[in-house]
Amino acid sequence: MIVPCFNEAGTIRLLLDAIDRQTYPRERIEVLIADGRSTDRTLEEIRSWTAAHPALSVRVVDNPDRIIPAGLNRAIEAAAGDVIVRLDAHCVPNPDYIERCAAALTAGTAENVGGRWDILPGGKNWAARSIAAAVSSPIGVGDAKYRYSETAGTVDTVPFGAYRRETLERLGGYDETLLSNEDYDLNVRIRNNGGRIYFDPAIRSIYFARGSFAALAKQYYRYGYWKVAMLAKAPKSLRWRQFLPPLFVLAFGLLILASLFSDPARSMLLLMCIIYVGALLFVSIRTAGRNDDLGLIPGMPLAVFTMHFCWGFGFLRHIAERIRLKARKTKPGT
Known about the structure:
By secondary structure, the protein is α/β, with parallel strands linked by helices.
C-alpha cells in the first residue's frame, strides 16, 4: 500500500488501524508512507503506532519534493509487491478493501480497480457537515459515481485505485508535473492504452471531507487550476461535469459586467441566480430532511457554490495564464 502524507497527525492512526484490520493476509501487506517532511506530529504518531504493532510492515519513505505524485512514485519505487494499492492518510478503508481489490485484479477485471467513498464530515460543526453533504451529492460533483453510486461498472476514474505494478511501470508512474489531478491523469493514460477503470461499490472506504469553507475553497481551486495542465496533455478527456464550473463562472462574470449597462443582461443575471439558488435550495432541503439536519439548508448551498466557483475560477485563471505566457513568447523581440 502506498500513502502520500503531509501533516496528518490527526488521522494517520485511523488509517493504520484500518489497514491492521484487513482480511488480506497481514504478512503480505507492506505499508509505504511517503511523507512530505511533515511539520506536525505525524512521524511521531507513525513511530508510536508501529512500535505497538510490529506484525504489520510499515515504512516511511522520504518525499523531499513535498508533492503527491512525487511521493507516490517514491513509494512505488520502494515497494516490493506486484499489487499496488493507493490510499490517502485521511481515509479509512473497510476491512475487506485490499482483499476485494486484489481479487478483482487477479480476475483481470481491469487495470485499475477502485470503490466508493463513504464521505464523513471533517469536523463537528454545521459547516463541516454541509461540506460532506455537498461533496457526496451529484449537484456538487456531477457524475463522479465513486462518491454516491451503488452500481458497478467501467468508469473514467476512481479514487485511490489498485494496480498491478507492471501497469504503473509501463506507463511511467504518476506525472510529477501535476500538483493535482495526478490520479485522473494516470487513469486517462490507462484508458488511452487500452486498459479499463472499474468501479465496484463493494470496495469501500471512509473519506473525511474538508472541515471548513476556506479549506474547501483552496482544495477546489487547486483541482480546477491543475485540471488545465492535465487537459493540455489529454484534451479529449474533458467531461461535461468538468466543463460546467468554468462556464458558470464565465457566464456569471460576463452578466455582472453587462448588467451595468444593459437591462436585458440584468434580467438574465437575475434569472440565472434564481434558477441556480433555487436548485441548490431544493436539493439542500431534501438532503436536510433525509439527514434530519437543518444546518444543511444554508450550509449545503454555500458549500456547492464554493466548489463550483473555486473550481471554475482556478480553471479559467490557469487558461488566462497560459494565453498570456504564449502571447509573451510570440511577441517580437522577446
